[in-house]
Specification:
The protein has helices at residues 2-23, 30-47. By secondary structure, it is an all-alpha fold. Helix 1 (2-23) packs antiparallel against helix 2.
């Protein structure tokens, strides 16, 4: 599912930023990064989110 892929990607972006931030002073990138993450999550929610549907009868056990 593309929604979970986008969600995982944004988590990885933030995790890498936080790890790099411990070593280098890159606080100025935080605002741009958070803006990008918010846009990606919003786009994923609008574009990729799919409602859950019940299983087909042959797949039910």
């Amino acid at each position: 599912n593309m929604y979970e892929f986008a969600l995982t990607g944004t988590v990885l972006i933030v995790a890498v930023y936080l790890l790099v931030l411990r070593r280098y002073d890159l606080r100025f990138l935080g605002a741009f990064l958070i803006g990008m993450v918010v846009l990606l999550l919003g786009g994923a929610t609008v574009s990729f989110y799919v409602e859950v549907v019940p299983l087909m009868d042959p797949l039910k056990s």
